[in-house]
# Entry
Amino acid sequence: MQMLEFFNAINCFPLASLEVGQHFYWELGNLRVHGQIFLTSWFVIAVLMLGAILATTNVQRIPSGMQNFMEFVLEFVRNLAKDQIGEKEYRPWVPFVGTLFLFIFVSNWSGALVPWKLIELPAGELTAPTSDINTTIALALLTSGAYFYAGMSKKGVVGYFADYAKPVPFLAPFRVIEDFTKPLSLSFRLFGNVLADELVVAVLVFLVPLFVPLPLMVLGLFLGSIQALIFATLAANYIGEALEGHGEEHH
# Structure
């Protein structure tokens, strides 16, 4: 759903009538959703499900092939969650952090490796899911919900919000602003980097069809991996902060 249309629906005055680019819309009742982002997101989910099925179909004591790769990814995510959340609290959050990392990683790589532009749509074009601001905001809001849930489930609602007044009460408004700007920084950082990389490669492919875009595509794969790592690391760090308390160090 378009973010501007959502806010226009709940406000008396429209925020804007400007729309960037063309989109392939699906009409679901009174909702208009970006169909091309759903299609590429389902492709990413299918790739992840296929990898999980291949890794767990015939589990061996000495792993090899896809099982070995997925166990390496699992160990990587576990270490990431342990470092950011803490050894006592990290285990329940490994699936969430791992899902964020793998979805963003495969989404970013699909934008660099899959020739989405060759598939024609009635309007708009297929791109990586993370190059759409709606996807990155949804991921950031899931992260926000996760760290609020983490803090409240451990300390209770009253205990969690009481931390906003520590060490001095007048800092409470700044803590509130900090918590609600975290999802914005996460979403715009991921969206901006992925979109910029796709635009640069598209322009260079148009100007110099072969040799120049190839190194940039390789660089795009590297940057896409780094963006997935940054998002997952910050999400785990925010959850660790919520479990320990605002502004406290967690180990």
